[in-house]
Hints:
The chain contains eight helices and ten strands. It is of the alpha+beta class. A hairpin with a 2-residue loop joins strand 8 (157-160) and strand 9. Helix 4 (126-136) crosses helix 7. Residues 40-201 form the Aminoglycoside phosphotransferase domain.
Amino acid sequence: MDEVEVVVAHSERATLRVGDVFLKVDADQARIDVEIEAMGLAPVPTPEVLWRKPPVLAISAVPGTALGRLGEPSTASPAAWAAAGAAIRELHEAPLPPWPGRDLGELTANLDGECEWLVTNGVLPPDLVKRNRQVAEAALRPWTPVFTHGDLQLTHVFVDGDEITGVVDWSEAGQGDALYDLATLTLGHEEHLDDVVAGYGTDVDLDVIRAWWSLRSLLAIRWLVEHGFDPSAPGCEVDVLRSRL
């Protein structure tokens, strides 16, 4: 019998691996709906949907290994990072998904609320929060929406050698800012930004990508703490914020 591996588990959802099958348990069926539809629309390799029986979605494993992990050096080649950039460009050039993305006004309000929480509760020094809120401002501008993955952490991109073999976890997909995907992929791995941009193949505003690093980190810390993760681990979100000083 195959061993059951707990990939991730918290109060919102859990993912288990049994052999070559991933079982995603999620009480939010709208999130699963988005994931299934997005995988069907995306022009990049994605897992195969095997079956669905709410609240469980079964998908196939994709070959290869993750591009890396936040807080750890990536062993993937520069060519693999460039291939990830090329795959993102292909996604961004695809027709928009039919559901809307994040609202700029709501995003700004959420950011201000999280900054206030971080300072009021003594989670981060006020000057660190203030500086990163200033940096984040560059991302808070109108953008032309594209088909975005929405949570393109490097653990969600799988490679075999220099080739992309699959992109997983599409529950946050929607219409969004192209630079947000590029920023999410390179969060904590600034040394690979040039490779990703080279693969992406078009000029991008690096200041906006850096702004998204600050913005995403500020927004994530409370959620991570409340769900049992450590954003202050070496190389993770708090270190990303400190690097902006």
